[in-house]
Write a structure and sequence with these properties.
The complex is a heterodimer of chains A (113) and B (114). In chain A, the strands form 2 sheets. In chain A, strands 2, 4, 5, 9, 10 and 11 form a 6-stranded mixed sheet that branches. Chain A has a 5-stranded antiparallel sheet with strand order 1-3-8-7-6, with no helix packed on it. In chain A, a hairpin with an 8-residue loop joins β9 and β10 (101-103). Chain A has no helices and 11 strands. In chain A, 0% of the residues lie in helices and 53% in strands. Chain B is built from no helices and 11 strands. In chain B, 35% of the residues are buried. Helices cover 0% and strands 54% of the residues of chain B. The chains are: A mainly beta (113), B mainly beta (114). At the A-B interface, β10 of A face β5 and β9 of B.
Chain lengths: 113, 114
């Protein structure tokens, strides 16, 4: 059983600070990873995808992937109250049927004014 | 971006009845759609893969006779929860695959079984 692990939080972050979220995975064969944001009562929305070791930046978000250590992280810079949500880490369950995702439990982020 | 809709957004039913949830890709064709379930304070769990024109494939532990999936067209997949019970109350979310590496989630359907 492939595992995707996240700290459930809540992670409390002052407005304007950097939120750092971590995710570890058990399958060394995993090649791609996705970060989703989920507001309470809503479905997930894609923030970032990352396929290669290193950093990938998109606006205030930076995803980091370290395949040797089997972790992927998400940094949110200049955190805003609107960033308060649950952030889900996901990886494909198989390489031959993209879209079947294994999700982590999610990390709740609370940005305090 | 591509849009996926679900209907209804919320449904309340009595125990023992069946409920049908629709998932539509509005501006693209999706040969593959996925159905997830999310219980309160838990993450999304994949239930099944819906393939247009063929039988759905179910994840381990998901009863295929209880959760009937039909993917009759390239833009519509339906999930029917048969003989629903209170433990089936959950947030059901579909997603549609566009191309090889992109999928879009629907807004979800909240089911409450009394």
């Amino acid at each position: 059983q492939k595992e995707v692990e996240q700290n459930s939080g809540p992670l409390s972050v002052p407005e304007g600070a950097i939120a750092s979220l971590n995710c570890t995975y058990s399958d060394r064969g995993s090649q791609s990873f996705f970060w989703y944001r989920q507001y309470s009562g809503k479905s997930p929305e894609l923030i970032m995808s990352i396929y290669s070791n290193g950093d990938k930046e998109d606006g205030r978000f930076t995803a980091q992937l370290n395949k040797a250590s089997q972790y992927v992280s998400l940094l949110i810079r200049d955190s805003q109250p609107s960033d308060s949500a649950t952030y889900l880490c996901a990886a494909p369950m198989t390489t031959d049927s993209w879209g079947k995702f294994q999700f982590g439990a999610g990390t709740q982020v609370v940005v305090t004014p | 971006g591509a849009v996926v809709s679900q209907h209804p957004s919320r449904v309340i039913c009595k125990s023992g009845t069946s409920v049908k949830i629709e998932c539509r890709s509005l501006d693209f064709q999706a040969t593959t759609m996925f159905w997830y379930r999310q219980f309160p304070k838990q993450s999304l769990m994949l239930m099944a893969t819906s393939n247009e024109g063929s039988k759905a494939t179910y994840e381990q532990g998901v009863e295929k006779d209880k959760f009937l999936i039909n993917h009759a067209s390239l833009t519509l997949s339906t999930l029917t929860v048969t003989s629903a019970h209170p433990e089936d109350s959950s947030f059901y979310i579909c997603s549609a695959r566009l191309g090889k590496e992109t999928q879009y989630f629907g807004p979800g359907t909240r089911l409450l079984v009394l």
